[in-house]
Amino acid sequence: MEKVKILMLDNPESLSDILDGMYDWVRVVDADNNVIFMNKSMSDAVGEYIPGTKCFSAVGKSTPCDICTSRKAVFKGYSFTKEEIINGRIFSVMSSPVRNKEGEIIAAVEVLRDITAMKVMEEKILQQHKKLSDDLEIAKKLQYSLLPKEHSEERYSFSFIYKPCESLGGDYLDIFAIDNDHIGIYIADVSGHGVPASMLTVFLHSTIDKTLLSPSDALSGLYKEFNKSNLDKELYITVFYAIIDFRKGNITYSNAGHNVCPVLYNSEGLNILMSAGTPISNWIEGNPAYTDKVLPFKSGDKLFLSTDGAIEIKNACNEMLGQERLINMLTKDKSPSSEALNNVLNIIYEFSGIKDPSDIIDDITMALLEFK
User: Could you tell me whether strands 105-114 and 151-152 are parallel, antiparallel, or unpaired per DSSP bridges?
Assistant: First the structure.
């Protein structure tokens, strides 16, 4: 059996060979800041030291460092780290105490690692992060600028809450006049969050035909336009779209896969605007069949729309809030529309135990249209 050569680390020559083989710089400094050892990597870089050379002059400095980790290591008895610039390069310096056999601290050993490339990369990453943050802030402002404004007019009042879980949301809603007798209103939920989702909300806002008086025709047109682009199958939009006819007093609506059905309610009861339909996607060949349904409304009725972020939020027992609870909250609240939505939002936070709104894990969007 071949004998294994054992390297005795208490042999000064063997230890010196190990230190000289290191890429990092290593030196030993005594309590008076004199260099008493320097490994080959360091001496090759800064020049051979003369016994008694001060640690700072050995690296080209005329005065001691502002923060001397070696003296801290000697006098305090434990390791210290810092960053130091030597000959235009950035080094991470760790100083640790060296003890004799009696346990007395007699010197400090310094290990200097060149981290210049890492610091340059870190700075580039920080600059890129700042640029991305600035771009996200611009995109956020753009997305918010496309959202409707809360308003009240002779025939109705409109209020909403929009709480994205990230800087950019995947929820969207809009309300707009089509002509003197009709307004359109829709709420949408885009797959995912962040930039891809926000871009789809911009697509929705700019593409949906706001002149048609048939929601199903508008959704069909939106589906066709979506399929002209080569998007992944993971990307899709669910949309509930309704057109209010004030002259006839009815709501015509159609649904493209939006799983939270809006509710029309008053003090006497409620109607759930249920309708099925394929999400705006490229999941199927050809055009899906969207259908229109009609429901009358009268003065005092309220139309509530929401995305699933509100009803799917969970409490500490992993129990979802659910649409039934949400509807009960609304129908019991007699506050004005904007106050009612804020009251519901506060109850949602209380139910889920959320203290900070930034802790939500899905976008929460709710809208309330009250007929006068």
Answer: unpaired
The residue length of the chain stands at 372
CA distance 272 to 295: 10
Residue 346 carries which side chain, given as an amino acid letter?
A: N
What angle (nearest 5°) sits at the alpha carbon of residue 223, between those of residues 217 and 228? 130
* Confidence at residue 73, expressed as pLDDT on a 0 to 100 scale: 67
Q: For residue 343, which amino acid is it?
A: N
What residue ranges in the chain does DSSP mark as E strands? 25-30, 35-38, 80-86, 89-99, 105-114, 151-152, 156-163, 171-177, 182-190, 237-245, 250-256, 263-266, 269-272, 293-296, 302-306, 364-371
DSSP state, residue 314? B
For 146, other C-beta atoms within 10 Å of its C-beta total: 14
What is the C-alpha separation between 146 and 241, in angstroms, rounded? 17
Burial class (CB in 10 A: 0-12, 13-18, 19+), 259: middle
At residue 154, the 3 state secondary structure works out as coil
Its CATH class, for the domain covering 148-371, is alpha beta
Which runs of consecutive H residues, i.e. helices, occur in the chain? 12-20, 40-46, 69-76, 116-146, 194-207, 215-227, 308-311, 322-332, 337-352
Q: Residue 321: phi, psi to the nearest 5?
A: -65, -50
- 77-127 pLDDT per residue, tens: 788 888 989 888 999 999 998 888 888 888 889 999 999 999 999 999 999
Which residue type is seen at 269? G
* Protein fold of 12-114: Beta-Lactamase (3.30.450)
Residue type, 169: G
| Cα separation, 262 vs 274, whole angstroms | 8
- Distance between CA atoms of residues 93 and 75, nearest Å: 17
pLDDT in tens, 304-337: 999 999 889 999 899 999 888 888 888 888 888 7
pTM of the predicted model, to two decimals? 0.71
How far is residue 90's CA from residue 44's CA, in Å, rounded to a whole number? 17
**Do 372 and 191 form a contact (C-beta atoms < 8 A)?**
no
Residue 5 CB neighbour total at 10 angstroms:
5
